[in-house]
Amino acid sequence: MNQHHSQQIHREFQSLLGTRYTIDKTIREAHAKDASYHQGALPEAVVFPDSNKEVSEIVKICAKYNKPIIPYGTGTGVEGAVVSSEGALCMSLNRMNRILSVNPSDRDATVQAGVTRLELNTHLAKLGTQLHFPVDPGADASLGGMVATRASGTSAVYYGTMSDNVLGLTVITADGNIISTGGRSRKSAAGYDLTRLFIGSEGTLGIITEITVKLARLPEAVAAAVCAFPTVDAAVNTVLKLMDAGISLARIELLDALQMDAVNKYSRLNYDVAPTLFFEFHGSPNAVAESSEIAASIASVNCNGDFRWTTDDTERKQLWQARYDSYYAALNLRPGSVGYVTDVCVPISQLALCINTTRALLDTSQLMATMLGHVGDGNFHVVFPLEPNNREELAEAQNISNQIVDIALEMGGTCTGEHGIGIGKRCALEKEHGAAVNLMRAIKNALDPQNLMNPGKVFL
Amino acid sequence: MNQHHSQQIHREFQSLLGTRYTIDKTIREAHAKDASYHQGALPEAVVFPDSNKEVSEIVKICAKYNKPIIPYGTGTGVEGAVVSSEGALCMSLNRMNRILSVNPSDRDATVQAGVTRLELNTHLAKLGTQLHFPVDPGADASLGGMVATRASGTSAVYYGTMSDNVLGLTVITADGNIISTGGRSRKSAAGYDLTRLFIGSEGTLGIITEITVKLARLPEAVAAAVCAFPTVDAAVNTVLKLMDAGISLARIELLDALQMDAVNKYSRLNYDVAPTLFFEFHGSPNAVAESSEIAASIASVNCNGDFRWTTDDTERKQLWQARYDSYYAALNLRPGSVGYVTDVCVPISQLALCINTTRALLDTSQLMATMLGHVGDGNFHVVFPLEPNNREELAEAQNISNQIVDIALEMGGTCTGEHGIGIGKRCALEKEHGAAVNLMRAIKNALDPQNLMNPGKVFL
């Protein structure tokens, strides 16, 4: 882009957005990357639109001047989906944080993309709806970001992923059109499922600005428990038995011994430093009692002693907060480190073998690594706290991660259960989907012929 | 296409498929249309491939000679998605009827597209898996057809639609490539969701040849009940109360008085000729007892007398068979008639108003019309048994249907809950999704640039 264009675009953004267009270096630095080791260049500028109309105008200006746009939510991703590049415009959706409607009888709500899941849940509680938005990736991510990465997390085993909990979207397309996908009916067979095409598209097909989500009833009763095991294998086998028995689990999380140590230190807790399962049961008081009793009896065969129950709401929240903080707790084991996280998901019958093979791989390495997972879905993570800019460590983590992906794919699994492709999994996507990636590319080209929507992400 | 090409293509198909390529008129006639009033021209030929390789070869021949392909399952659709056109090739998937794998621990199965849902369920029972494929549109449709139309039916309120129950697909693309989408893991964030793009694409983006489906556990306990009401309104209000109370219903179906009369006559039953709800409860014995008791107490406020329980398995199957036969029962009220079916779905809070407004519309017409619906989803149908080739009747049915669609869209609903667009809802799709249809068209053009995959369907 020549100097002249650069000045023109500067003027156009200023006139459209005033101070909500900025080239301030600190702000650009704060929008250059996500929560992981992935490095980003500084964006040329950051914009903070607050309406569909403004997003549309920004997209049109970018199309005119051939300027790439990187949509930005809370920056809590870990695959580099929001890392910036030279000359790109970062579009923060964080001013688009209005809850547009809540329909208790239909159990749905429509929000702007910048609303975070906790903001929505706080609002639902204030309204006294007895409803909640159940998808829970741990981080207080924006719903736009959660849509963009097809997020899931601890509660997906019971409530499903973003794919299951979104009814419709408003999207600004690459030519600046404002379109609506889906709707408010619970099902529809009206044409191609654009909603689910945009879910997981990581900003590469258009800017997601509004989301209609399904809401779930708050469970009448909740019980949570923690249970330590002598080995990871014993814990995973317990999970398989529970799943096989059809026990209704709202969450079932595995943390290995080092991750428990990290959690204890970071959140000042005193759990056993041993492979541990965190459980949660939702439902009617009878159903919760029934499920949790059966679960306890199955778990007791392999575990170190008893279930540690946490029926108290505060204690339960503390427990899950510790689980949510796991990533930062792992990084905290090595102060100043940056995180590299793997994310495979396999059919549940393959989970024990996949985790054991991964454990064996980790044992051949000097890298510090914790393991944790949403094991009811067959999804688990290895967190490597890496020294920043240490190429050898990064190469080793990448090498191990590639091998874990190969193992998972061999088992019919996927290279990413919930973190997305970003820039970190582009090779893995090719490995996993082969010729199907050409269809994805064809769709990308059709919907974004100038390649301005988060270019370089998802595809090599 | 000139004579020379015509002979060449004939020779190529014969050499590839032998007698599984046919120009027999009776067979072509049997593949010209679906189960509705929609008229089709005779396809030029019908092919019966039995492998991905053969489908791929057929697609490549068609691409070479610019010949449209119409994939055909069981022909049980009602929106004309499989109606043929002059010069088109009909591709029946009914020889691709092998069950390729069943994984009980992962609760999934992979089948060829021609396998019907009852064939799969019979197979699962024979294997003693205690699993079933729960999506149930009534007709014993092929799973390929159910994927293509994003089918749902009576059990969607509990088990979800095809969108919720498919993990992955094998698809033959418009250039003859064999690709896989999705996989066997329960969740994935790996790139665009091609699986859900093909679900509901009605054969316009490629030929679906294999499907990996989720399986559900057979419920430990099942209870079914029938309950008659003085008015449709009383029945619908009962549904709203049940949904609002969060009662776990596996099915909840509404049939109006005329539809009940039709069912009685067609299936030789003796139900009250009154608006009626059919219920089914699935779960543990305790959960079923709990849910059905609460449901009975809520329903009893408005209903004509008591729940009529059918705990006996044979009686229960008879009850649901009567419900499944509803469409043919309605046509049977007027022997020789052809069916025109509406299919709107609205947010549940709007259902009573939408049904009442529809009822008022029907009352202004002389056309015979029955009403029935999957009311737990907000989805209902009007069936018009029409005199074949009677243009006035067809125009009147279309006019009423258009008005029902307008009402539903006004309420935030959709023009089709489960039957798809085919040729019957193309205008409605434009009304419902406006500019978003341009994105669908762009995707169609990108994946099928020659427009040979079921051309003329979904889009005007």
Set out the fold topology.
The structure is a homodimer of 460-residue chains.
Chain A: H1 3-17, E1 21-22, H2 25-30, E2 45-47, H3 52-65, E3 69-72, E4 89-92, E5 99-103, E6 108-112, H4 117-126, E7 131-132, H5 143-149, H6 156-159, H7 162-165, E8 166-172, E9 178-182, H8 194-198, E10 207-214, E11 216-217, E12 221-228, H9 232-244, E13 251-255, H10 257-267, E14 276-283, H11 285-300, E15 308-309, H12 313-324, H13 326-332, E16 338-341, H14 351-363, E17 370-374, E18 379-386, H15 391-410, H16 426-433, H17 436-447
Helix pairs in contact in A: 1-3, 9-14, 10-13, 14-15
Q: What does this protein structure show overall?
A:
The structure is a homodimer of 460-residue chains. Chain A has 460 residues and is an alpha+beta fold. Chain A is 38% helix and 19% strand. The first copy, chain A, is built from 17 helices and 18 strands. Chain A has helices at residues 3-17, 25-30, 52-65, 117-126, 143-149, 156-159, 162-165, 194-198, 232-244, 257-267, 285-300, 313-324, 326-332, 351-363, 391-410, 426-433, 436-447; strands spanning 21-22, 45-47, 69-72, 89-92, 99-103, 108-112, 131-132, 166-172, 178-182, 207-214, 216-217, 221-228, 251-255, 276-283, 308-309, 338-341, 370-374, 379-386. In chain A, the strands form 4 sheets. Chain A has a 7-stranded antiparallel beta sheet, sandwiched between helices. A 5-stranded antiparallel beta sheet of chain A has the order 5-6-10-8-9. Chain A has a 4-stranded mixed beta sheet with strand order 1-2-4-3. In chain A, strand 5 (99-103) and strand 6 form a beta hairpin. In chain A, helix 9 packs antiparallel against helix 14. Chain A is globular. The model of chain A has no long low-confidence stretch (mean pLDDT 95). The interface between A and B is large, with 82 and 82 residues.
